[in-house]
TrEMBL record:
Belongs to the protein kinase superfamily. CAMK Ser/Thr protein kinase family. SNF1 subfamily. It comes from Ziziphus jujuba var. spinosa. Residues 313-337 form the NAF domain. This is non-specific serine/threonine protein kinase. Its EC number is 2.7.11.1. GO terms for biological process: signal transduction. Its cofactor is Mn(2+). The keyword Protease does not apply. PROSITE patterns: NAF, PROTEIN_KINASE_ATP, PROTEIN_KINASE_DOM, PROTEIN_KINASE_ST. It is an enzyme of class 2 (transferase). GO terms for molecular function: ATP binding; protein serine/threonine kinase activity. It catalyses: L-seryl-[protein] + ATP = O-phospho-L-seryl-[protein] + ADP + H(+); L-threonyl-[protein] + ATP = O-phospho-L-threonyl-[protein] + ADP + H(+). ATP binds at residue 41. InterPro entries: Kinase-like_dom_sf, NAF/FISL_domain, NAF_dom, Prot_kinase_dom, Protein_kinase_ATP_BS, Ser/Thr_kinase_AS.
Amino acid sequence: MENKSNVLMRRYELGRLLGQGTFAKVYYGRSMETNQSVAIKVIDKDKVMKVGLVDQVKREISGMRLVKHPNIIELYEVMATKSKIYYIMEYAKGGELFNKVAKGKLKEDAARKYFHQLISAVDFCHSRGVYHRDIKPENLLVDENDNLKVTDFGLSALAESKWQDGLLHTTCGTPAYVAPEVIGRKGYDGAKADVWSCGVVLYVLLAGYLPFHDSNLMQMYRKIGKAEFKCPNWFPAEVRRLLFKILDPNPGTRITIPKIKESSWFKKGFYSKSTKSDVKNEDLSSTDTDTDIGASGPRENGNTAAETKQDSVIPPNLNAFDIISFSAGFDLSGLFEENSERKEARFTSRKSASTIISKIEEIAKRLRMKVKKKDRGLMRLEALKEGRKGILSIDAEIFQVTPTFHLIELKKSNGDTLEYQKILKEDLRPALADIVWVWQGEEQLLPSQQLQQVQQQQQHLQPQDQLQQLQQQDQQPAVATN
């Protein structure tokens, strides 16, 4: 390696060889700072440049950075020297899924579990505009908890790789797993091609061998083009039906991932399990002070008590400095977040706390989300179905400025950020319109001026010196930024 001690840039210790390809080798590694096990992919710069694969390496790095998901190997960082490129990645202790299949077919429940996780990962990739294009058991790893991890994005394509016809045109992949339209070289939809490959993987997991196999490559391509395959007699009828829909040679009629998730075999034995949030949040389950409200509305038992509690809800008060900290001018998150998609949204309202709570419950019912009411104006909305990164959860917290003026913060506490942004934009914001005074970022007045106006109108004035202090604090940064 780079030196005799096998230490990379004084940060990682390189160990045994895990695998190798034409242009790269993968080693087991250990962080010298945290002692964390990692996988280190070492790419030879000269070899890559000689064959013109520099763009492919850049695409692989870009794709892996876009797809952070529990069932996808995470790229921690990329380092380089004059001669080598190093990917520091998540280490999957269980090795390749291929090694399990090589010993024989898997039990149906085990195959279904891996297929669930594969579909979840691939669906997430597609939502981020990443198409894997080389899905096969050799590129599916298993961690110490027996969870599947998709790896090797070396042949992946990004959405911007599409031609003007909206299709991809590079023929790539592993012959036995590639979709017929990819072989046809007339352009193909990356998402539909990935679905086909997932179907071949499912067949292999359940059968222990490939659906399309022939010593003559052209004969195998012919079988793939016509989808000529037979299911073993031990395949359940539900699996057969699903496979024939996935391995449909016509990409236009091939089943989509949302439809796969709705199939009876896929849903059998399926249990929702929330993935770890990418935003560390306090566990609110222990602070429940009221009944859960499901998609069909509040439970009958305890409704009267719930209404009484709702009327008596007193959200936490905001003082002058709290309001300043909520001001968009003091929000420094843009300096640290990788993208502009915020995970929280704030608005002000002149409605009472009980009116705001009722409105949020009404919206949740319409969106078929469960509501958990918490102490002091904090509520959590939870989706009933698992999304791309687990159950989507949204916290709604109400802060009291005056008895008739409130600040409400909506924040994703679990699930996929894009799903949250979509429901916020298309559902929550329009539905909240009749109780919103102004959304943060759209206000014409500074927070202190808003507060002063409301206080004067509602005659709930604080002492004049405190209001002046608030105005002075809010005006000082405005001068500094000009």
